[in-house]
């Protein structure tokens, strides 16, 4: 008998950097196809998937490229970068046979639907993947915070933070070979140990609304499926 999924509806937070692969900038086609392949696997299991995408592979409001700029202007540019990534992701999903919709927190009617909570919920229930672009639509908030917000609005079972590292470690595993991966952590433990799971605003939102976070590597083949099945993959941050 096949294993039952541990979650019905998930919010996947993808960084813009995840789309770069080994490139120094932009979108790596092979990488985006690998990510979409993992998403297709869980959609086929009947999982409802919402995605919040970052824009750091193109432009980031707090990056050196934005030095000297008005912070709000730089952040709006970063939001537009997330829309570019969302369109690329949707295109790759369409080619893979998935039905996806892009909803943007900034109005861009020619290329994306405006974010409407009820419509997004309907799409998820219909089995469509919803890609939430342009962060929260407000400067000074990260896409991590947008992911926490959309996760709560969509009533997801868990937020999955896809990174290049397969969980949260006691130390940087690239620098310290003795670093150990945490299987589970409470929100309070993560704070007291100063573990940078995500930015403080997003983290506080998830803790206050009791939305658990699973940190895992999107670059491990089959990792997303293992997370959805509730297997020991990545690190679970819980209340």
3D architecture notes:
There is one protein chain. The chain has seven helices and nine strands. By secondary structure, the chain is of the alpha/beta class. A nine-stranded mixed sheet has the order 4-3-5-2-1-6-8-9-7, with helices on both faces. α1 (29-43) crosses α2 and α4 (143-153) packs parallel to α6 (200-208). The chain is globular.
Rg over C-alpha atoms, rounded to the nearest angstrom: 17 Å
User: Order of strands side by side in the largest beta sheet?
Assistant: 4-3-5-2-1-6-8-9-7
Round the mean pLDDT to the nearest integer and report it.
95
Class computed from helices, strands and strand pairing: alpha/beta
Helix proportion range: 25-40%
Quaternary arrangement of the chains shown?
single chain
Given as residue ranges, the uncertain stretches (5+ residues, pLDDT < 50) are none
The global form is: globular
How many beta-strand runs? 9
Q: What string, H for helix and E for strand, traces the elements in order?
A: EHEHEEHEHEEHHEHE
Major sheet size, sense and barrel closure = 9 strands, mixed
Number of alpha- plus pi-helical segments:
7
Binding site for ATP: 13-16, 56, 60, 163, 169, 172
Protein name: Uridylate kinase
Family: Belongs to the UMP kinase family.
Function: Catalyzes the reversible phosphorylation of UMP to UDP.
């Amino acid at each position: 008998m096949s294993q039952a999924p541990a979650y019905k509806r998930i919010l996947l937070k993808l960084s813009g950097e995840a789309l770069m692969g080994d490139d120094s900038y932009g979108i790596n086609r092979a990488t985006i196809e690998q990510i979409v392949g993992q998403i297709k696997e869980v959609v086929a299991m009947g999982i409802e998937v919402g995605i919040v995408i970052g824009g750091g592979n193109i432009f980031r409001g707090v990056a050196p490229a934005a030095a000297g700029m008005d912070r709000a202007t730089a952040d709006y540019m970063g939001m537009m970068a997330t829309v570019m990534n969302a369109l690329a992701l949707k295109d790759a999903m369409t080619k893979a046979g998935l039905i996806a919709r892009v909803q943007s927190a900034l109005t861009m009617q020619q290329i994306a639907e405006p974010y409407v909570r009820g419509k997004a919920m309907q799409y998820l229930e219909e089995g469509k993947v919803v890609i939430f672009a342009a962060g929260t639509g407000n400067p000074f908030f990260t896409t991590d915070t947008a992911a926490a917000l959309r996760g709560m609005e969509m009533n997801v079972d868990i937020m999955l933070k896809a990174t290049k590292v397969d969980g949260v470690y006691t130390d940087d595993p690239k620098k310290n070979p003795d670093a150990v991966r945490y299987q589970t952590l409470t929100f309070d433990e993560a704070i007291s140990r100063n573990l940078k799971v995500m930015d403080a605003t997003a983290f506080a939102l998830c803790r206050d609304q009791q939305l658990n976070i699973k940190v895992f590597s999107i670059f491990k083949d089959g990792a997303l499926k293992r997370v959805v099945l509730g297997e020991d993959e990545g690190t679970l941050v819980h209340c």
